[in-house]
Amino acid sequence: MNYNKKLTLYLALLSIVIFCMCVIRISLLKRDAPRDLAEIEQEGTLRIAIDYNQQSYYIQGDSIVGFEYRLAQAIGKESGLKIELYPEINLQKSLDGLNSRQFDIIARPLPITTQNKQLYSFTDPISLNKQVLVQRKASHNNGKEPIRNQLDLAQKKLHIIPDASTKLRIENLSHEIGDTIYTVEENLYGYEQLIILVAKGEIDFAVCNEDIARNMNKSYPEIDIKTDISFTQFQSWAVRKESVTLLDSLNIWLQRIQNASDFKQILKSDRTSK
User: Which structural domains are found in the chain, ordered by start?
Assistant: First the structure.
């Protein structure tokens, strides 16, 4: 009798283990399966990782505003797909989610650099932007004048978000001036948080996108953003290399949206009104 009970228990446990292994295997196969427009249309949902800041996606009162937010909603109308947005401050988490097929698109301004193009496919340019040095004005920095000459960045510590293109640009700049420029990657913060830390005097320098820095400058007039770190670059949204059909369709949808003059005015308002 005891033997039969043990056998029954053993078979039950074995069945549970086999079931769990099957579930894990199916999950892994699903994760590794290609996900392009056909798979997205079959599911009916386009999953978009979006930057959480006042430029891209921001809760204002009882409304959601932002350039990328409105653009994503317009893509939903053009494509007929349900749009699921995943606000994320950390760029690396967005990239990890794209790589693991948790997201289909990264809707945040990414520079189209040679390095980035090797890893991801990019939409046609959506905007122009550049990276600037965020520092305090002399009136809020014990009379110390802001850096204007990039040579004066030698031995300075620049805080950045985890972004390979930004780090590479600073490394190249370090070679250009013939001295070391230190970088500190802030995994917990986005551009806005870095700007606030500079304004409060908790850090001295940060490197941020100019459009976000300009917008934040309205709320934090003590910061100076007049020193460029990079040249002006085209910026786009990113998809996986495998998402060839999605990229083609996304470019068509974006072109239709950008050609609509009434929507251009709404987007312009989101860029400049906050």
Answer: 37-128+235-272 (3.40.190.10), 131-231 (3.40.190.10)
* Other CB atoms within 10 A of residue 7 CB: 10
| Cβ burial 246-256 (10 Å sphere, 16+ → b, else e) | bbebbeebbee
- For residue 262, pLDDT over 70 is answered with no
Q: What are phi and psi of 104, to 5 degrees?
A: -100, -30
Burial (CB count <10 Å: 0-12, 13-18, 19+), residue 216 = buried
Residue 166, C-beta contacts closer than 8 angstroms, at least 6 positions apart: 131, 160, 207
Looking at the chain, list the stretches that DSSP marks H as alpha helix, in order from N- to C-terminal side: 2-32, 37-43, 67-79, 91-99, 114-119, 164-177, 191-199, 210-219, 244-258, 261-272
- The Cβ of residue 180 has, within 10 Å, a number of other Cβ atoms equal to 11
Residue range 214-256, pLDDT digits in tens: 999 999 999 999 999 998 988 899 999 999 999 999 999 999 9
Structure tokens at 271: 């860029």
Q: What is the 8-class DSSP label of residue 225? A: E
CA distances from 187 to 4, 28, 135, 159, 170 (A): 56, 27, 20, 10, 18
The Cα 220–Cα 213 span in angstroms is 10
Instruction: Identify the bridge partners of residue 238 per DSSP, sorted by sequence position.
Output: 106, 122
Q: For 45-77, how does the pLDDT look when each residue is reduced to its tens digit (9 = 90+)?
A: 999 999 988 888 988 888 998 989 999 999 999
